[in-house]
Design a protein that fits this description.
The protein is mainly alpha-helical. It contains nine helices and six strands, in the order E-H-E-H-H-E-E-E-E-H-H-H-H-H-H.
Length: about 210
């Protein structure tokens, strides 16, 4: 165990806390969560946040990765809130000493595995969204469907990029038929995977 003992401890502790249960998080999403975590971060700029992440990287707390062209970070340590220490272990080990994740679960963090999961998420979202939109349009109106899909996907992506709360507020107002799908996805998949799936789909319908 390594105790927090430096001047940047509060900042680094809150960065780790901002990950939540996620192991991998997009940098923009992590920054938004960090800002929302405490009012004392309201004056922190994204450049200051990046410098903090770079320092944490040098300590082995986090590691940068590229997710389909987007910068993301992988949490490399576990924060023990009771003792206010970090456990310098591979994150794919469980905090609870009684459990260990399988090797197949560990392999999901590879770029290929992440992309495959995101594509699966994208297919599920596309099927649900297309079905919801098509029910209100005449058959064969593909151009209109694509335009509506593009608008929804942009809004879904932008909302989740801000926070889950923002996403579900958007779903409540604009797309209540999609709520169950996103409830299930975010309960079973890492938020970064769902975001990447939305981004893949958004890019397809913007083309």
């Amino acid at each position: 165990m390594i105790p927090f003992a430096g001047p940047n401890d509060d900042l680094e502790r809150d960065v780790l806390t901002a990950f939540g249960n996620a192991i991998v998080e997009f940098e923009d999403t992590l920054f938004q969560k960090f800002i929302l975590l405490s009012s004392r971060h309201s004056l922190t700029t994204q450049e200051m946040f990046r410098r903090c992440l770079s320092k944490m990287q040098s300590k082995g707390y986090v590691s940068p990765i590229d997710l389909h062209g987007m910068r993301a970070w992988k949490k490399m340590v576990v924060l023990d809130y009771e003792s206010d220490t970090i456990l310098p272990r591979r994150v794919m080990q469980v905090v609870d000493e009684k459990q260990t994740l399988s090797k197949s679960s560990e392999q999901k963090l590879s770029n290929v595995g992440v992309l495959s999961e995101a594509q699966s998420v994208a297919e599920r979202i596309e099927q649900t969204l297309r079905k919801s939109i098509s029910s209100d349009l005449r058959p064969g109106d593909d151009t209109t469907i694509r335009l509506i899909m593009s608008r929804y996907l942009q809004n879904l992506y932008s909302s989740l990029l801000k926070s889950r709360y923002t996403l579900f507020e958007y779903l409540r107002r604009e797309a209540p038929t999609l709520k169950d799908t996103f409830d299930q996805l975010l309960a079973s998949e890492d938020e970064a995977i769902v975001l990447l799936g939305l981004r893949l789909l958004k890019n397809i319908y913007q083309a």
